């Protein structure tokens, strides 16, 4: 809640309608399982509800219902932007490398170890196999938080691919920052730099679309 309290102090706008640019947020209704679109009303409430990751942040009470993160049902809300009348949709996928984080957390074998077990003289293969077996016994078990956040990311990844297959954006930006986890607020600079690089890689596709929209 500390981050949200800080945000409220520095954000002068309190209503969605007063935003300089059109804004909307998505939350999930825990009673119905449906997504709820915030397109007007309390800006701070909309942002807080749309960020309420299950198990990490408390849900938000609104109109008699409990709301959590919209990513539970719509991780990349292309449909919302289309409904708002967007001619061109540029989507940002922050979890496309979730499988890499999962591999970092749970994989105990390196490519080199795997290769040594299959190639080379018998004593090299034996040493590699014994090393792997030893590392399995001494490996640190992932924390409950790591398991929960990674599991959520994997589920969101599958849901996102299914939804975007039926309603794809015009441009999909995929910043590569597997080293930044969900709660690494102090590493925002790395995430921003990854976002800038993702935009630069898509510049040849972005510029023609921007020119036609102006």
Tell me about the largest β-sheet: 4 strands, antiparallel
Gyration radius, rounded:
22 Å
Shape annotation: globular
Instruction: Give the CA-CA distance, first to last residue.
Output: 39 Å
Roughly what is the average pLDDT, rounded to an integer?
Answer: 82
Task: Detail the poorly predicted runs.
Answer: none
Q: Count the E strands.
A: 6
The tally of helices reads 9
The chain-level structural class is alpha+beta
Task: Name the helicity range.
Answer: 40-55%
Concise overview:
This protein is an alpha+beta fold. It has helices at residues 2-10, 43-50, 78-83, 98-106, 111-118, 122-138, 144-166, 188-201, 203-213, and strands spanning 25-29, 35-38, 60-62, 65-69, 90-92, 171-173.
Word description of this protein:
The protein is of the alpha+beta class. The chain has a domain of 74 residues. Helix content is 49%, strand content 11%. It has 9 helices and 6 strands, in the order αββαββαβααααβαα. The strands form 2 sheets. A 4-stranded antiparallel sheet has the order 2-1-4-3. β3 and β4 form a beta hairpin. α5 runs antiparallel to α6. The longest helix is centred in the last third of the chain and has 23 residues. It is globular and about 70 Å long.
Structure keywords:
214 residues, 6 strands, 4-stranded antiparallel sheet, two-stranded parallel sheet
């Amino acid at each position: 809640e500390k981050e949200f309290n800080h945000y409220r102090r520095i954000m002068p706008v309190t209503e969605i309608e007063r935003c300089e640019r059109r804004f909307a947020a998505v939350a999930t209704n825990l009673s119905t399982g449906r997504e709820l679109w915030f397109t007007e009303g309390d800006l701070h409430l909309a942002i807080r509800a749309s960020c309420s990751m299950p198990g990490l942040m408390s849900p938000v009470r609104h109109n008699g219902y409990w709301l959590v993160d919209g990513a539970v049902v719509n991780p990349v809300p292309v449909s919302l932007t289309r409904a708002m009348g967007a001619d061109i949709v540029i989507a940002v996928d922050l979890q496309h490398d979730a499988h890499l984080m999962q591999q970092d957390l749970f994989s105990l074998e390196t490519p080199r170890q795997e290769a040594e077990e299959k190639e080379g003289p018998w004593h090299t293969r034996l040493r590699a196999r014994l090393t792997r077996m030893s590392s399995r016994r001494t490996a640190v078990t992932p924390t409950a938080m790591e398991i929960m956040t990674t599991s959520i990311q994997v589920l969101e990844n599958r849901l996102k691919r299914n939804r975007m297959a039926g309603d794809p954006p015009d441009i999909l930006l995929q910043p590569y920052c597997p080293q930044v986890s969900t709660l690494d607020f102090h590493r925002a600079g790395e995430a921003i730099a990854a976002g800038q690089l993702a935009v630069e890689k898509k510049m040849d596709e972005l510029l023609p679309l921007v020119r036609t929209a102006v």
